[in-house]
Q: What sequence folds into this?
C-alpha cells in the first residue's frame, strides 16, 4: 500500500502492525478469537470422523448442525458413547483434545496432574482442564465483547446527547454521569451478581451498565468542542437532521479514541468476570470458565494445575488487550509520532 | 474558590442519595429475601415433607420476622427510615446476629486501614522515584526492564497471584514460607512483647500486602512514566534548561510537579479502598477486614451491613473525586474553578 493512498484507518493499522508490542497484542487477540470460534473443533468428545463397519459418520459436524437446527442425530448415534463406539470402529479421528469441557468423567481419575492423556490435568469431577480452558475462551471473549459493545453504545448515545444539545439535557445527563462515578462499581457488581439468580447474561448486563461513564464523558467533551464548528453549522444549514449530524458528521471525528477505551474495556470486563467466577458468584455452577477452574484450586491447594493454567490464560488475554489498547492509543495520537 | 467548594459539597448530597437509593432498590427488588434464606437453612428443600399446618406456621413465622426486620414495608419507606437513622448516627442492626452494624465495622476497620495505608505508602514510595528514574534515563536498561515489569504487573490479576502464593508459598505441597491466611498465629497472646506481636502481624499480612500493593503500584507507575515523558518534551523544560536551571530543579520542580496530575487522580481512586478494603484479596487470604465482611454480608444477604458498607465506599468515592479535583487545581494553576468546570 502506498503511503499517499492511505486513509486514516490504514495509517493507524500500519502503525499498529509496525509496533512490535501492539503487533503481539493483535496476534494474541486473533489467536484467542480463533480458539473461541473453533472451540468445538479443538476440544470435543465427539470424533471428527467415525467409520463403524463401513458406515461413515461425522459426529462433530453433525453436532454443529443439530445445534443450529439444520440436522438431526441418526437413530444409532442418539446418546451414543463415542468413546465406546470408537473402540469398535474401523477408523476414528479425534480432535486434539478429545474431551468435553463440562463432561464429568466418572471412570477417569479426579485431580489427575497434567499427563499425556489429560494435557493440563483434571479437576475434582474428573473434567479435563484443557477442554475447559478452550471452551472458557469462548465465554470470556463473548463476555468481553458484549460488555464493551453495551458500554460503547450507552456511552456514545448519552455522551453525544449531552454534548450535542447542551442546556438542561447536558445538566441532567452530567448529574447522571456523576452519580455513576460515585458508585463503587465492583461492590455493586458483586452485590447484584450474588443476589440475582446466576446467569451469564446478567453478568454481561451489569458489567455493561456500569462501565460506560468514561466513554460518555469523553464523547460529551468531543461533541461540545465540535458542535459549533463550521462543518456542523454548514450541515445543519443544509437542513440535515440532528441524528444525521450527530452520527454521520460528528461521531466519525470523535470515535477513534473510543476504540482505545474499548480495547482496555475488554480486558477489564474479562478480568471482572473471572474475578466473579473466582469468588463463585454470578456464573452458573455447571459452566466451566477460567475463573471457575481457578476457584477450584482454592479448596485443593495441591492441585497447582487448576491455578496455573487458567490464571495464565486470563493474564495472557488481559495483557493482549492492554497491549492492543496501548498500541492503538499511540497509533491514534499524532503527537507521539517521534519516540 | 470557596464558592466552588461549597457548590461541589452541596452537589455531593444528591449524588450520595442517588447512589444509596439505587443500591437499596436493587437489593430489595432481588428475588427472594433474607428471611427465605434463614429459613432455608433450617428446613432443607424448602419445606418438603412438612404437613400443611406446619407449613402455615412457618409462613407465619416468616411474616413475623419480615415485620420485625422492617422488610414488609415499601422500598421508599424503608429507605427513608434507613436515612433518618443514618442521620442520627445509627447504621442499624445486622440481620444475621442482630449485632449493631457499627460494631461489626469497628472490629474490622483497623486491619483494613493498616493494610491499605501501608500499601498506599509503599506504592508511592516506590512508584514516584521509579517514574522519575524512567523519565530521566529513558531507554536505559533499567528503564526498559522496569517498564516491561510494570506492564506485566498491570495485567496480572491479583486473584491469580494470591492463589499462586497460597499454593506455592503458604504450606500445601510446596514451600511453607507464609501462613495461608488469618491475622495472627494461634499462639498469639496479648502478653507477648510488642515487637513479637508486630512481627506476627507482619508475617501474616506480608502476602496480602504484596498483592494489594503491586496492582496499585503498576497502575501508578504506568501513568507516572507517560506523564513524565510527555512533560519532558515540552518547551518549558527546554526553556528552563536554557536559562540555566540546574538539572535536579528542572526534574523536580518543572517535570515532576506537572506530572503529579495522574498521581493525584489515582489517589482519589485508591481512597475508597482505604476503608473498603480489597474484597478479593481479603477473601483469598482470610484477612478479617472490611473487604471480607462485604463479601460475607453480600452472600448472606445481610442488607443492613451491605448497605452501610456500600454507602461508606460510595461516600469515599465521591469525596475522592472532589479531593482530586481540588488538588488538581492546586498543582495546576491553569485550572480555574467555576466557568469551565461542568
A:
Amino acid at each position: 500500500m502506498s503511503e499517499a493512498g492511505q486513509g486514516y484507518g490504514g495509517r493507524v493499522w500500519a502503525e499498529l502492525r509496525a509496533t512490535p508490542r501492539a503487533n503481539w497484542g493483535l496476534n494474541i487477540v486473533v489467536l484467542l478469537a480463533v480458539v473461541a470460534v473453533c472451540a468445538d473443533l479443538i476440544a470435543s468428545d465427539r470424533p471428527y470422523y467415525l467409520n463403524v463397519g463401513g458406515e461413515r459418520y461425522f459426529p462433530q459436524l453433525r453436532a454443529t448442525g443439530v445445534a443450529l437446527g439444520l440436522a438431526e442425530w441418526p437413530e444409532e448415534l442418539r446418546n451414543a458413547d463415542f468413546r465406546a463406539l470408537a473402540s469398535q470402529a474401523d477408523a476414528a479421528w479425534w480432535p486434539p483434545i478429545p474431551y468435553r469441557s463440562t463432561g464429568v468423567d466418572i471412570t477417569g481419575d479426579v485431580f489427575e496432574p497434567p499427563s499425556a492423556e489429560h494435557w493440563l490435568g483434571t479437576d475434582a469431577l474428573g473434567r479435563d482442564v484443557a477442554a475447559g480452558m478452550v471452551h472458557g475462551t469462548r465465554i470470556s471473549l463473548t463476555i468481553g465483547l458484549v460488555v464493551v459493545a453495551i458500554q460503547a453504545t450507552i456511552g456514545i448515545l448519552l455522551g453525544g446527547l449531552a454534548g450535542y444539545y447542551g442546556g438542561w439535557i447536558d445538566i441532567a445527563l452530567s448529574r447522571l454521569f456523576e452519580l455513576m462515578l460515585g458508585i463503587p462499581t465492583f461492590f455493586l457488581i458483586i452485590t447484584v451478581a450474588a443476589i440475582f439468580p446466576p446467569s451469564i447474561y446478567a453478568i454481561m448486563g451489569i458489567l455493561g451498565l456500569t462501565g460506560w461513564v468514561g466513554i460518555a464523558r469523553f464523547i460529551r467533551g468531543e461533541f461540545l468542542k465540535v458542535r459549533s464548528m463550521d462543518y456542523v453549522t454548514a450541515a445543519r444549514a443544509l437542513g440535515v437532521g440532528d441524528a444525521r449530524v450527530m452520527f454521520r458528521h460528528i461521531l466519525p471525528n470523535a470515535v477513534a479514541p473510543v476504540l482505545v477505551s474499548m480495547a482496555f474495556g475488554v480486558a477489564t470486563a474479562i478480568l471482572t468476570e473471572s474475578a466473579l467466577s473466582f469468588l463463585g458468584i454470578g456464573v452458573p455452577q455447571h459452566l466451566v470458565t477460567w475463573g471457575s477452574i481457578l476457584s477450584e484450586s482454592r479448596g485443593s491447594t495441591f492441585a497447582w494445575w487448576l491455578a496455573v493454567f487458567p490464571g495464565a490464560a486470563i493474564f495472557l488475554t488481559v495483557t493482549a488487550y492492554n497491549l492492543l489498547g496501548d498500541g492503538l492509543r499511540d497509533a491514534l495520537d499524532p503527537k507521539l509520532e517521534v519516540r | 474558590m470557596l464558592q466552588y467548594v461549597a457548590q461541589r459539597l452541596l452537589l455531593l448530597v444528591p449524588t450520595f442519595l442517588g447512589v444509596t437509593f439505587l443500591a437499596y432498590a436493587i437489593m430489595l427488588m432481588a428475588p427472594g429475601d433474607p428471611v427465605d434464606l434463614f429459613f432455608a437453612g433450617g428446613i432443607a428443600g424448602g419445606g418438603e415433607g412438612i404437613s400443611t399446618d406446619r407449613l402455615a406456621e412457618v409462613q407465619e413465622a416468616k411474616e413475623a420476622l419480615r415485620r420485625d426486620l422492617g422488610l414488609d414495608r415499601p422500598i421508599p419507606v424503608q429507605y427513608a427510615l434507613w436515612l433518618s437513622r443514618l442521620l442520627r448516627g445509627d447504621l442499624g442492626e445486622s440481620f444475621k446476629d442482630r449485632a449493631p452494624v457499627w460494631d461489626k465495622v469497628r472490629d474490622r476497620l483497623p486491619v483494613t486501614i493498616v493494610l491499605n495505608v501501608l500499601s498506599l505508602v509503599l506504592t508511592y514510595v516506590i512508584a514516584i522515584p521509579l517514574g522519575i528514574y524512567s523519565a530521566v534515563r529513558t531507554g536505559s536498561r533499567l528503564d526498559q526492564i522496569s517498564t516491561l515489569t510494570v506492564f506485566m504487573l498491570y495485567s496480572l490479576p491479583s486473584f491469580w497471584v494470591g492463589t499462586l502464593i497460597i499454593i506455592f508459598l503458604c504450606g500445601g505441597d510446596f514451600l511453607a514460607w507464609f501462613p495461608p491466611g488469618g491475622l495472627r498465629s494461634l499462639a498469639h497472646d496479648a502478653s507477648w512483647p510488642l515487637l513479637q506481636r508486630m512481627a506476627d502481624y507482619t508475617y501474616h499480612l506480608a502476602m496480602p500486602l504484596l498483592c494489594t500493593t503491586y496492582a496499585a503500584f503498576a497502575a501508578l507507575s504506568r501513568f507516572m512514566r507517560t506523564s513524565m515523558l510527555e512533560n519532558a518534551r515540552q518547551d518549558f523544560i527546554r526553556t528552563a534548561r536554557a536559562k540555566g536551571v540546574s538539572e535536579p530543579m528542572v526534574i523536580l520542580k518543572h517535570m515532576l510537579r506537572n506530572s503529579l496530575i495522574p498521581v493525584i487522580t489515582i489517589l482519589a481512586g485508591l481512597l475508597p479502598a482505604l476503608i473498603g478494603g480489597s474484597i478479593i484479596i481479603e477473601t483469598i487470604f482470610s484477612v478479617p477486614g472490611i473487604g471480607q465482611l462485604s463479601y460475607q454480608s453480600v452472600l448472606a444477604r445481610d442488607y443492613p451491613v451491605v448497605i452501610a458498607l456500600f454507602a461508606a465506599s460510595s461516600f469515599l468515592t465521591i469525596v475522592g473525586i472532589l479531593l482530586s479535583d481540588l488538588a488538581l487545581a492546586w498543582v495546576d494553576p491553569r485550572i480555574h474553578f467555576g466557568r469551565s468546570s461542568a
